[in-house]
What we know:
The structure holds 2 protein chains of 2 kinds.
Chain A: H1 2-17, H2 28-31, E1 57-63, H3 67-70, H4 74-84, E2 89-95, H5 99-108, E3 126-130, H6 137-147, E4 162-166, E5 182-184, H7 191-205, H8 209-216, E6 222-223, E7 228-232, E8 238-243, E9 251-252, E10 280-283, E11 285-286, H9 296-300, E12 305-306, H10 309-323, E13 327-331, H11 341-352, E14 358-360, H12 371-376, E15 385-390, H13 394-399, H14 406-418, E16 423-430, H15 437-456, E17 467-474, H16 491-503, E18 510-514, H17 517-527, H18 533-542, H19 556-565, H20 570-574, E19 589-590, H21 595-606
Chain B: E1 5-13, H1 22-36, E2 52-54, E3 63-73, H2 79-89, E4 94-100, E5 109-119, H3 123-135, E6 140-145, E7 148-153, H4 155-158, E8 162-166, E9 169-179, E10 182-183, H5 187-197, E11 203-212
Parallel strand pairs in B: 3-11
Antiparallel strand pairs in B: 1-3, 1-4, 2-3, 5-9, 5-11, 6-7, 8-9, 9-10
Bound molecules: iron/sulfur cluster (2 copies).
Amino acid sequence: MGCKEKSLNTMGEIRKEKGMKMYPEELERALLKVQKPGRYVGGEALSVVKDKKDVEVRFAFCFPDIYEIGMSHMGIKILYGAFNRVPYFWCERVFAPWVDMEAEMTARGVSLYALESGDPVKDFDFIGFTLQYELSYTNILNMLKLAGIPLRSADRTELFNIVVAGGPCACNPEPLADFFDLFFLGDGEEVDLEVMELYRQCKKEGASKGEFLRRASQIQGVYVPSLYDVDYHPDGTVKSYTPKEGVPATVRKCSINDMDSAYFPDSFPVPMIEVVHDRVSVEVLRGCIRGCRFCQAGFLYRPFREKSIETIDRQCRDLCASTGYDEISLSSLSTSDYSRLNELLDRLHTWTEQQKVSLSLPSLRVDNFSPELMARVNSVRKSGLTFAPEAGSQRLRDVINKNVTQEELMRTVTVAFREGWTRIKLYFMIGLPTETMEDVLAILSLGQDVVDAFYQCKDKPKGKAVEVSLSAAAFVPKPFTPFQWFGQDTMEVLREKQRELKSKNPSRRVSVSYHGAETSFLEAAFARGDRRLCAVLEKAVEYGLRMDGWDECFDFDKWMEAFAACGLDPAFYASRQRGFDEVFPWDHLDYGVTKGFLMEECRRAYAAKTTPNCREKCSGCGAGCFKGGICVGGR
Amino acid sequence: MGDVKNVRIWFQKTGAAKYISHLDLTRCMARALKLSGLPVWYTEGFNPHIYMTFSMPLSLGVSGLRECMDIRLTEEAGLEEAAEKLRHYLPQDISVLSAAVPEDPFDAIAYGDYELRLESEAPECLWLAIQELLAQDAVLVKKHTKKGEKEVDIKPHFTQMEHKAMPGWLALRAVLPCGLQGSVNPSLLLEALSEHKNLRPYVEITRTKLLKKDFSDIR
Lengths: 635, 219
Ligand code: SF4
Ligand code: SF4
């Protein structure tokens, strides 16, 4: 470790001697006019600066949101480390400038730049985006625009500025298909490197961009959208996807079977300003054993694969030793499902206490909350406890396969009250399939039951009042879930449900909050959209839309104008109930889980029948094709 | 407290680091101290943290060439070595100059020595404008305080400035009150220029050092 850091440091010194800046000189005059200038200057400890003459392929890792959010994201840290480990690759970070900085950059003619070198993004071989949420799509196009790179793949004819993306939303990348040269499906840490190697090879051979893309499309996990022709039925639904030039008819995602040998970084750039998750986070497992039917991540990342205690322990030690953080988050979709959680915590406690490092779990489950567990992880105390029953009635929880019972929840909150907590936050969704107003109102009774449980609890904290907050998000049906056929509740219906929730709230100790129906509607349109939406995105960016995830920027009316200008109806994508025989824009992408399994799960949902989790019993979802994780290991 | 020794760390905050707040700086320092493995003293209590105390915080955007903070070491550690270790783990634009035994308490700090570089096509003209400004009976600017806005006369603080005109720049040196008894922010001069003279040149501000009452360097 000492050796590596030495070399990074020397790079820093070289840069200092040459008087190099991490950001373009012209920006000096703008930085004090914008909020949080520290977002735009780089210079963090452990950021990787290489000598350009040793580098053959430059990769600009673009996070389509602001610095504080991007720097809290695990994926960027894994890939940054994996790419930079190769001496002739150099990966740098790029974040979306907030609107004030965007205006300054535009006014000064400064194009989007990377934080390590300060070089313009248009000088990079690869421009890679991570697709985390649909509402960041305009930021992607806006960033390309700020970089001065042609938006459409067809307008970038050279073997250069290859625009790529990965991440969960790559499972239906069609609304972005015209802008990207290729998408990575599934786990990226190996296939990304393979494609970068291929590019390097193609450069040496003087191959064309077309040749490079054809060759890339033969690699598992690589989807080149331009090599597939789409035909539509007169009613607007997809008729067929036709592969061209001998590319595979379906593209299967990459899945790393052995999480212990998979690359994981031992350092990452440590932000100088405070970011959302300002701590070390170590991934303890990938995938999830549970098949909550609304949850896209639960299906996309199958199978469930754990790291060994030894690996997690080493990775925690390494990251604490390189970054200096004193908090570790053990992260994953469902960390408390780690099979040997107590043993893992024991192991970590052998050194974390003495080094004054605290541990936190990102999510708690209703069914395994215990005072013992709470005593061993910190940082939950501050903000109160959060659980996600997701639906108010038992019937609806069975529909969505969320195996939480009323009794478990009551037991859990009673334990929490006894331990001194008085603030409980419960997450729900409204607009779930088969939901009636009765189900919606059951959310309120559950909230009331929690309040009652507080008053009935003999050992509750004295002199304190209970606060129960209920948060109701609008359900967005996603591809690769049993609800991918479901027509989302219209905005009117969602608003009606929200009104009921607000007006029928029985208790002053209960508060109700919900998100806008409009953003959920838009998210639903893009989640299950097709290629024709590319035109809408282009229009939206032309109209100046971006940062749609931020209330102060979101402009629903402008969005509707953009749809209208392209002659498309967002309701066709969001609210239309689809038939089992419909061809989906993502049917040629293969995440292991079969469409047949999803249909069966859909039928079971409507019959309110639950399905056991992968640890209890294999349901033959199809992800067994990867021959890894829980599908082959014992349960 | 046992055998603890106060150590004063002298450092610079420049380049990218001038754009981070004082709170961010303390976080960076805490992480670097943790990494350095130096035998730092932790505060006692429910939530122990590394003991650090800073002299006068710099405003966002102002560079500092000779800033200091005090830490405590629980074991004997070479000062040179301590400086070297800490330097290694800090971001490149927060650079450690040296570590030393503190001679003066922080409340002995009375002034900051500032350099202001104002961008100007005609630096001599800008200097004339500044002189005109300071020739007024009083130079009132609005100061934002916790209790709301109030008008202050900054004239007495800026009359002693040195100046130097360079191609494209006017450099000013001002020694301004900077201490626990009260501070004058060098940017007030720019506010006065803007309010009274309608001039808004781009400026780079650097605090070159901190001084005692008798204008000698704090040590
Ligand atoms: S527990 Fe359910 S909601 Fe959570 S990640 Fe797993 S499948 Fe998704
Ligand atoms: S194949 Fe079986 S064990 Fe594997 S992910 Fe699917 S349901 Fe779970």
